[in-house]
Amino acid sequence: MSDTQNSDSSKGDAIDFEQALKELESLVERLENGDLSLEESLQTFERGIRLSRECQKALRRAEQKIQILSEKEEEIKVNTQDINNTIDSSC
């Protein structure tokens, strides 16, 4: 996958996460107002649970990406140190 595709999908994830979070906040407000019937409350609650799970999945994906990037950065630091040590010992 190219960098452009990666950044596009990351932006899509962020937008989806933000939209889901906003909708979830709206659902919580509706439930807290107490103006819904029992059936509407149950449907709203179920939708909220689905959105909450979607948000949790998006956060886990973001955490995994951060972990991978952090590991790659650490590998680069180690390789750079090895190169510097080789150069220093050859001088």
List the helices and strands and how they pair.
Layout: H1 3-33, H2 38-90
Helix pairs in contact: 1-2
Question: Could you describe the 3D structure shown?
Answer:
This protein is mainly alpha-helical. It has a domain at 3-64: Helix Hairpins. Helices cover 92% and strands 0% of the residues. The chain is built from 2 helices and no strands. The protein has helices at residues 3-33, 38-90. Helix 1 packs antiparallel against helix 2 (38-90). It is rod-shaped. The relative contact order is 0.09.
CATH topology of the domain at 3-64: Helix Hairpins
- Overall 3D shape: rod-shaped
Helix content: over 70%
CATH architecture of the domain at 3-64: Orthogonal Bundle
Q: List unreliable stretches of 5+ residues.
A: 1-8
Keywords:
single chain, 91 residues, mainly alpha, Helix Hairpins, 2 helices, disordered N terminus
Give a short synopsis of this structure.
It contains two helices and no strands. With 91 residues, it is mostly helical.
